Amino acid sequence: MDACFASSKSSHRNGTYQRWAIELAKTAHARFTYRPPHGGRKRMVWKMGIDLSYPLVASMGHLDPLDGLVTYIELRAASRIPEKSSDLDLNPEIAELTAICEGKDWVTDDPLGIGDLLTDAYKTAQLSREKNLNNPNGWKEF
User: Fold this and answer.
1) Residue 130: its pLDDT value, please?
2) What is the pLDDT averaged over residues 9-25?
3) Is residue 131 part of a domain?
4) How far apart are the two ends of the chain, measured CA to CA in Å?
5) How far apart (Å, rounded) are the C-alpha atoms in residues 14 and 82?
6) pTM of the model
């Protein structure tokens, strides 16, 4: 997910890299999320085959939904693509990851997980600061 956001921050004038980053995020989301056969809310797989056609590790990583959500919000906030076409709209993916994240317990004693949580908190604080300084609606625009 960080590769998507890094690509979107490129200064390419016509937004090509941002478009590619959003397209990559949408494709990854479509392939890494699924609804369990017994019903219930969507889940994510941890690792997919190189062609994204089958899961290599079907379990969901502890912080993967949160990482994805923060990255999608970063992509949407950084987008400078003039025309907001429906094929570049990340709102459905953001809504799905929000639903996956709801009610999750983020507590971890894993040092990598702690670092991941701190990174997500930092990114969220940056987004909040940027939006609140430049936008009277604050988080509503996320």
Assistant:
1) 77
2) 78
3) no
4) 18
5) 9
6) 0.81
Token pair 């999750």 is found at 104
- Both tokens of 2, joined, read 């960080």
Residue 82 pLDDT grade (very low, low, confident, very high; cuts 50, 70, 90): low
Neighbours of 126 (CB within 10 A): 12
* Single-letter amino acid, residue 52: L
The tens digit of pLDDT for each residue in 42-71 reads 999 999 999 999 999 989 999 999 999 999
Please state the domain count of the chain: 1
In a domain, 62, yes or no: yes
pLDDT band at 140; cut points 50, 70, 90 = very low
Would you say residue 134 lies in a domain? Answer: no
Rounded CA gap, 55 and 46, in Å? 8
Q: For residue 39, is pLDDT > 80?
A: yes
Spatial separation of the C-alpha atoms in residues 122 and 2, rounded to whole Å:
14
Is 40 inside any structural domain? Answer: yes
Torsions phi, psi for 141 (to 5 deg)? -80, -10
Domain containing residue 45:
2-105
Give me the half-sphere count of Cα atoms (radius 13 Å) on the Cβ side of residue 16. Answer: 3
Q: Per this entry, what is the length of the chain?
A: 142
For residue 136 the two structure tokens come to 């009277």
